Amino acid sequence: AYSNDEKGFLDILEEGISVSAGDNSAQILVFAGGYFRDNGDEKKAEEYFKRLVELFPQNELYKSELEDLRK
After folding, report:
1. Contact 34, 19 (CB under 8 A)
2. Element (H, E) at 51
3. The whole model's pTM is what?
């Protein structure tokens, strides 16, 4: 469960993703994935990196990060 501050952060993050496109959305998704990975929520981090791989299937870094999270 997330605190109110974290919930607000998640809402802002999702809003940013929904209104961004291309490289801007990638930057937000990378930030989100890294944030959750670094804070121990690997399942949530995996969701963001999965979205990155779906949007940018040629990006080996995103694929590698997703594979690492699935280990």
Report:
1. no
2. helix 42-55
3. 0.80
3-33: pLDDT as tens digits: 677 778 788 888 887 777 677 788 889 999 9
How far from 60 is each of 29, 63, 65, CA to CA, in Å? 15, 5, 9
User: Counting Cβ atoms within 10 Å, is residue 49 exposed (0-12), middle (13-18) or buried (19+)?
Assistant: buried
Distances (CA, A) of 47 to 17, 30, 42: 13, 11, 9
Instruction: Return the number of other C-beta atoms located less than 10 Å from residue 54's C-beta.
Output: 10
Question: How far is Cα 61 from Cα 20, in angstroms, rounded to an integer?
Answer: 21
